[in-house]
Specification:
207 residues; 4-stranded mixed beta sheet; 6 helices; disordered C terminus; transmembrane; transmembrane helix; DUF4956
Length: 207
Amino acid sequence: MDTKLIDVEDLLELVARYCFNLFIIFIIVYFIYSKNSRRKDFYFSYYAISTIIFTLCFLLASVKLELGFALGLFAIFGIIRYRTDTIPIKEMTYLFVVIGISVINALSGKKVSYIELLFTNAAIVTTMWILEKILMLRQEVSLDITYEKIDNIHRLNKEELLKDIEERTGIKIKRLEIMEINFRKNVAKIRIFHDINDVNGNSKRKL
């Protein structure tokens, strides 16, 4: 089979769809995700994965990729989940959204009009914006601390305990759990729960 040096029509289609896909991903990552999360370490991954998935699906579309291939992409990332480092649920959800949009924009055939494609992308972007802004869904994370003011762990001193920990950590605490009490050392292990935007990631801190 002869391979064409250039097919202007297909090239223009590739460029147009790639730019459109990149624009949609930019809106989701920059205007929705980044505005509601301080984690910037996933920016590169989102853009890189979107680019690879889009080009892979678009260029291989000529060999009649079936729906199973697209679903297989989700299965692969669902199994692997970047085993070197566990991805938080929210970041994993955005990853699936990025993959899904890239697959849609690459594999939507001629039977799908540009208006339908535009509406689909707009619907996804709008839904993500509503979930983040209107419903104000927040991701709760935990932080384990060692607390030395043992008198404050009494149930009658709960307000004082919360106030003291918030002042010393600068974190707005949503709730807390007393995990362990050591009366010999006059310390207690406490797990506090807060919004992920207050402090990124789980850690341990001694107070």
